[in-house]
Amino acid sequence: MPSRPVFIETDMTAALNEQLREGLLKTIPLASFGQPEDIANAALFFASPAARWITGQVLTVDGGMVM
Q1: Which residues 6+ apart lie within 8 Å of 50 measured at CB?
Q2: Among 41, 32, 42, CA closest to 9
Q3: N or C: which end of the chain has fewer CB within 10 A?
Q4: Comparing C-alpha atoms, which of 63, 56, 61 is closest to residue 31?
Q5: Where does the chain show beta strands of DSSP type E?
């Protein structure tokens, strides 16, 4: 499946007009933009001892957009 951009709350997404934001939110099953911490927490998990036996995986952190 081709990857799609995910939408994280940043200065760039804050600049989107309300109509565009509402349209984008309709494409996200969790109905919200991600937070930078959502990406950071996934990266921290893979860098932690808890992930020591995980190899060669792709973790999709996108609020359900590829479901």
Answers
A1: none
A2: 32
A3: N
A4: 63
A5: none
Q: Please write down the HEC assignment for all residues of 23-37.
A: HHHCCCCCCCCECHH
Q: Which two tokens stand for residue 42?
A: 């996934």
CA distance linking residue 19 with residue 13, whole number of Å: 12
Token pair, residue 57, equals 């995986």
Tokens of 35: 């937070």
DSSP three-state, residue 8: strand
